[in-house]
Write a structure and sequence with these properties.
Helix content is 47%, strand content 0%. The longest helix has 18 residues, at 132-149. By secondary structure, the protein is mainly α. The protein is globular and about 40 Å long. The chain has one domain.
Length: 152
Amino acid sequence: MRSLGRERDRLEIIERVRRLRPGLAHRWGRMSAHQMVCHVADAYRMASGEKPVRPVTGPFPRSILKWGVLYLPIPWPHGISTCRELDQELGGTRPVEFSTDLATLVALVERASRPPLPLDPPPHPIFGRMSAADWQRWGYLHADHHLRQFGM
């Protein structure tokens, strides 16, 4: 299973991130490529505990939803809204300078890929408690989802 904990998968994500350009058209959703860079960076900040987010409740039990999203071999669906703290039009980090924001994202991918990972990672707003390995799996899948959104 792909994960930021695997060197090959980390390098793949970084290479795809570096191919992003500000004017790329999205295949789905409403974010610009620059907003997506900031959104994914904010998500890594959330995973490290640097960016607190409030829990989101839904109709499915967290443990079943987490298992399905992280471990079923199907692509994530399009059009799922994010939490307010990670939405660049609401509470997320606003895009400033594309190359700087891109470099920040690459650094955050690197940080999420290597120890020391938090011994007690923060809970995910939808999935609840997650291990460091769960966060690395999620980190790969989340970046992959948004990179595919822009044809990367």
